């Protein structure tokens, strides 16, 4: 068994779509980043790569590479899943949490779980997505960004 932990954070800015777990969420701001800046999927990818001792997404998909500009993070997740499978690991489970003051994430959680599971070729019951706020504290509480944490277990 191998355990990996991932974390990602991006600032919220105007003029960008908000994508979390591969789901478009109607909101007045989106996350700033080289790709679609999907912090949830980025945290999951880093957790998977960490568990397999394969580095991180910045190493595999550098923001200096124009091939990844604006790319869907679900495409990158699928590639990470393939790399994990090539090393003969099986994803036992993924537990994740999105930290955002706004918007409310709860209505989109089931679709996020399904998207992540589909791209990794696992059952949705192996994927947990939760949401929380910072009770108004810090840059997330001020509405300036969104973060995500993920933990995975590989066998």
TrEMBL record:
Transition state stabilizer, annotated site positions: 34, 133
EC identifiers of the protein: 4.6.1.12
Cofactor binding comment, as recorded: Binds 1 divalent metal cation per subunit.
A GO biological-process term: isopentenyl diphosphate biosynthetic process, methylerythritol 4-phosphate pathway
Occurrences of domain 2-C-methyl-D-erythritol 2,4-cyclodiphosphate synthase (ranges): 1-154
Reaction it catalyzes: 4-CDP-2-C-methyl-D-erythritol 2-phosphate = 2-C-methyl-D-erythritol 2,4-cyclic diphosphate + CMP
Binding-site positions, 4-CDP-2-C-methyl-D-erythritol 2-phosphate: 8-10, 34-35, 56-58, 61-65, 132-135, 139
UniProt cross-references to Pfam families, sorted A to Z: YgbB
Highest taxon listed in the record's lineage: Bacteria
Cofactor requirements of the protein: a divalent metal cation
Leader peptide range in chain numbering: none
Binding locations of a divalent metal cation: 8, 10, 42
Family that this chain belongs to: Belongs to the IspF family.
Function: Involved in the biosynthesis of isopentenyl diphosphate (IPP) and dimethylallyl diphosphate (DMAPP), two major building blocks of isoprenoid compounds. Catalyzes the conversion of 4-diphosphocytidyl-2-C-methyl-D-erythritol 2-phosphate (CDP-ME2P) to 2-C-methyl-D-erythritol 2,4-cyclodiphosphate (ME-CPP) with a corresponding release of cytidine 5-monophosphate (CMP).
Family annotation (NCBIfam families): ispF
Quaternary data: Homotrimer.
Name the record gives this protein: 2-C-methyl-D-erythritol 2,4-cyclodiphosphate synthase
Organism this protein belongs to: Caldicoprobacter faecalis
């Amino acid at each position: 068994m191998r355990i990996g932990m991932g974390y990602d954070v991006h600032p919220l800015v105007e003029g960008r779509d908000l994508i979390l777990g591969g789901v478009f969420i109607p909101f007045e701001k989106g996350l700033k980043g080289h790709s679609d800046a999907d912090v949830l999927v980025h945290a999951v990818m880093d957790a998977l790569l960490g568990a397999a001792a394969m580095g991180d997404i910045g190493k595999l998909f550098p923001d200096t590479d124009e091939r990844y500009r604006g790319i869907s993070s679900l495409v990158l997740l699928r590639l990470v899943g393939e790399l994990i499978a090539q090393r003969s690991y099986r994803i036992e489970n993924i537990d994740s949490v999105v930290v955002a003051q706004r918007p409310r994430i709860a209505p989109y959680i089931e679709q996020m779980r399904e998207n992540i599971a589909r791209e990794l070729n696992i059952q949705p019951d192996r994927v947990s997505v939760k949401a929380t706020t910072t009770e108004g504290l810090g840059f997330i509480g001020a509405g300036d960004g969104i973060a995500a944490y993920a933990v995975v277990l590989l066998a």
